[in-house]
Design brief:
- The protein is an alpha+beta fold and about 120 residues long.
- The chain has one domain (about 5-120): Nuclear Transport Factor 2, Chain: A, CATH 3.10.450.
- Helices cover about 35% and strands about 35% of the residues.
- It has helices at about 5-20, 30, 35-50, 115-120, and strands spanning about 55-60, 65-75, 90-100, 105-110.
- The longest helix is centred in the first third of the chain and has 19 residues, at about 5-20.
- It starts with a helix and ends with a helix.
Length: about 120
């Protein structure tokens, strides 16, 4: 396998292992060319779901691009998007597409099941 493709996949995997699973938003500085918004978003999300764990389901790399499908599980312990803490276990899935240049993610898009998460937080 092409070592560049493997390095690109390893970089994208760090989003999940280092930033999310180790609850280390500052790792964004090593992963992204422009980390500020990513770091802030991850920190805010982890304040609501501090035990959040991501699993990479599969990953595909071609050229300078990587696609990763993931699932996430955690517990709603803090306020998020107007939802008071519920203590509920949550689960959602998503996909990240990233473009890498010189060892950093320079462009990325993540789609995830936000409505699925919101439905889980609704009071019964």
């Amino acid at each position: 396998m092409d070592t560049t493709l493997e390095a690109n996949k390893a970089l994208v995997r760090r989003i999940y292992t280092d930033m999310w699973n180790r609850a280390n938003p500052a790792a964004a500085r090593e992963i992204f060319a422009q980390p500020q918004r990513v770091e802030q978003y991850v920190a805010g999300f982890l304040s609501a779901f501090p035990d959040l764990q991501h699993t990479v389901v599969n990953m595909i790399a071609e050229g300078d691009q990587v696609a990763a499908r993931f699932s996430a599980r955690g517990t709603h312990r803090g306020k998020w998007e107007g939802f008071a803490p519920t203590g509920k276990a949550i689960h959602y899935t998503g996909v990240t597409l990233a473009r890498i240049d010189q060892g950093k993610i320079v462009e990325h898009f993540t789609w995830w099941e936000r409505r699925e998460l919101e439905a889980q937080l609704q009071h019964e």
